[in-house]
């Protein structure tokens, strides 16, 4: 199922669609002369509600405009013919949407303004004798919908925070596992070099001495044994060197584990073949750098994809990070970026920030390896 369909058929959205259907069913009680206008207003409200599931994350401003227009359409439908009494339910749907996308303070102020206009419509347009009672009844439903949406969004934020912490733990575990494997490889390499290598050297010297003894000079087995011991000693030295050279941390696995639980942005990772990171502190710095970039791309740039490229230039490791979102105007560095700079500075690295031609954030870092 596509993302759009998942949003539309979300349980909360499905309840709203059923409510819209009930309001549409009540259209037969409207004045026949006004039914066409009523259907048009209900269609506009429904279209605005459904469109909220279609906008990509970067069109947040358009989404806010749609949410601001929805109560105007609902109030117009109420003013058109208040007698059926079903149109105010649209304000319950709207306030749930408002609390989903706006801050609680802004949504509460908007609720008070809209309900005040609703009261005035009932009192001066419809001529109701007790408009306050009707407003308070629907205000209770609105408060219930707002609280449900507020707690639903709070649960989602807690879930996302837990997913980020879990991703951090998985990535850190991957680095620790690599460090443990490297430590074991170094231990084996030292044992081979110090123990097996030492004894093979001693054995080869003894065999060479036997080969020079006139009593054993005519025995070819002594020369063969001395030759084999030399070859075995060379093989052990090659194995030790290979074990030492293979001691690098698997950054790719750690970075993918870090990004896997996040629904957005998607990580596109490119690591050149000559990139070798053996220092856990350098690997940890790269990990935290990408982690902060993922968080900023999701929260501030509404990005769908984050490109991370690791390249080596001599003794320097270059990390280039760029998303496909848009950085808002007036953006300033926060604590996360300051933490990046401090972490890199402690390792004698550098960090540069810039905006790409399309308005996305670009991060360039250099670390000595």
Automatic annotation (TrEMBL):
One Pfam family here: HisKA_3
InterPro entries: HATPase_C_sf, HATPase_dom, Sensor_HK_TwoCompSys, Sig_transdc_His_kin_sub3_dim/P
Keywords noted in UniProt: Kinase, Membrane, Transferase, Transmembrane, Transmembrane helix, Two-component regulatory system
Domain (Signal transduction histidine kinase subgroup 3 dimerisation and phosphoacceptor): residue spans on this chain: 184-246
Example of a GO cellular component annotation carried by this entry: membrane
Transmembrane segments: 12-30, 36-55, 62-80, 86-102
GO molecular function: phosphorelay sensor kinase activity; protein dimerization activity
Top-level division of the source organism's lineage: Bacteria
Protein name: Sensor histidine kinase
Annotated source species: Luteimonas terrae
């Amino acid at each position: 199922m596509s993302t759009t369909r998942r949003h539309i058929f979300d349980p909360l959205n499905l309840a709203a669609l059923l409510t819209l259907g009930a309001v549409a069913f009540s259209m037969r009680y409207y004045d026949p002369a006004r039914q066409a206008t009523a259907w048009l207003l209900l269609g506009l409200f429904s279209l605005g509600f459904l469109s909220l599931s279609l906008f990509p994350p970067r069109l947040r401003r358009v989404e806010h405009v749609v949410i601001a227009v929805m109560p105007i359409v609902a109030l117009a439908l109420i003013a058109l013919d208040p007698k059926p009494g079903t149109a105010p339910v649209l304000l319950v749907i709207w306030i749930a949407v408002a609390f989903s996308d706006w801050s609680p303070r802004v949504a509460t102020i908007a609720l008070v303004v809209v309900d005040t206009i609703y009261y005035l419509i009932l009192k001066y347009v419809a001529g109701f004798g007790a408009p306050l009672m009707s407003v308070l009844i629907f205000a209770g439903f609105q408060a219930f919908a707002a609280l449900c949406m507020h707690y639903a969004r709070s649960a989602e934020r807690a879930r996302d925070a837990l997913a980020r912490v879990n991703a951090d733990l998985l990535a850190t575990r991957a680095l620790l596992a690599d460090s443990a494997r490297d430590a074991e490889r170094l231990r084996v390499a030292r044992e081979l070099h110090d123990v097996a290598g030492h004894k093979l050297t001693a054995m080869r010297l003894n065999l060479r001495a036997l080969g020079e003894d006139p009593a054993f000079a005519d025995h070819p087995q002594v020369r063969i044994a001395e030759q084999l011991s030399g070859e075995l000693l060379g093989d052990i030295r090659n194995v030790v060197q290979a074990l030492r050279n293979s001691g690098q941390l698997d950054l790719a696995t750690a970075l993918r584990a870090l990004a896997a639980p996040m629904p957005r942005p998607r990580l596109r990772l490119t690591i050149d073949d000559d990139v070798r990171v053996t220092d856990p502190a350098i690997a940890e710095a790269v990990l935290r750098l990408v982690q902060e970039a993922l968080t900023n791309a999701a929260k501030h740039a509404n990005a769908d994809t984050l490109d991370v490229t690791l390249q080596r230039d001599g003794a320097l490791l270059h990390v280039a990070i760029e998303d496909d979102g848009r950085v808002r105007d007036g953006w300033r560095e926060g604590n996360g970026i300051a933490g990046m700079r401090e972490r890199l500075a402690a390792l004698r690295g550098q960090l540069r920030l810039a905006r790409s031609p399309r308005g996305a954030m670009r991060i360039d870092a250099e670390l000595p390896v």
